[in-house]
Write a structure and sequence with these properties.
alpha+beta, Fusion Protein Consisting Of Minor Coat Protein, Glycine Rich Linker, Tola, And A His Tag, Chain: A, Domain 2, TolA/TonB C-terminal domain, 2 domains, 7-stranded mixed sheet, 3-stranded antiparallel sheet, 4 helices, 37% strand
């Protein structure tokens, strides 16, 4: 189920989470944990706040992000249970966050000015077809730096990645390595009413010294 969650569920929710944060203009950072249940057909059965972040706003935005992502892709046939329970943590770093303002966002695709949509509802998510992993930077290897970089980017109607930005920073050259790798990723484009469209999405790039054999 890892592939289903990581490629079909999380990109949907992340894109809507960033949109909710951007539109709310919230300045106070924190965390919120949401638990929700996905039925076999992709419908959302339950959606509740497990842990708050010290103020109600982030919890409410997290719940909205999950709800806005419905309906999800149907559960894989090999998953025999009637539903899938998911626990997701949402993090916002406050007014210093580099979240891309979503409203009115557009991208140039081969000379055509296209709107950029959030994934969810009638907008199907893009499907990765080529995802080379990032290399570990020499500086990070020497300093034994590891962690996760969250990148936000647009997948165009041609399946190409543009407008990449790091939502947080690990430093030591790892941000640049993550961006360099994702820039070469290829996708089967998202669709709206059966037609390819450009969408905003995000992904977490994990840099592990063990994984990279360093």
């Amino acid at each position: 189920m890892d592939a289903y969650v990581n490629t079909a569920i999380l990109p949907l929710i992340r894109a809507n989470w960033y949109q909710q944060i951007s539109e709310s203009k919230e300045k106070v950072g924190g965390n919120a944990t949401v638990e929700f249940t996905i039925l076999k057909d992709g419908r959302l059965a339950e959606n509740s706040l497990a842990e708050g972040a010290g103020h109600a706003v982030l919890g409410d935005l997290a719940l909205r992000a999950v709800k806005k992502s419905e309906p999800f892709p149907v559960l894989p046939l090999e998953f025999t249970a009637p539903s899938l329970r998911v626990r997701a943590q949402f993090r916002y770093e406050g007014a210093t966050s580099s979240a891309h303002p979503f409203t009115g966002m557009a991208v140039d695709v081969e000379g055509v000015h296209e709107p950029v949509y959030p994934v969810g509802g009638a907008i199907t998510p893009p499907e990765p077809v080529y995802q080379p992993e990032p290399e570990f930077s020499e500086e990070a290897r020497k300093k034994k730096v590891s962690g996760t970089v969250t990148l936000e980017f647009v997948v165009t109607s041609k399946g190409e990645v543009v407008d990449i930005r790091a939502m947080n920073s690990l430093g030591s050259g790892l941000d640049e390595k993550a961006i360099e790798a994702v820039r070469h990723w290829k996708f089967k484009p998202a669709t709206k009413d059966g037609k390819p469209v450009s969408v905003l999405t995000a992904v977490e790039i994990d840099f592990s010294l063990v994984r990279n054999g360093r």
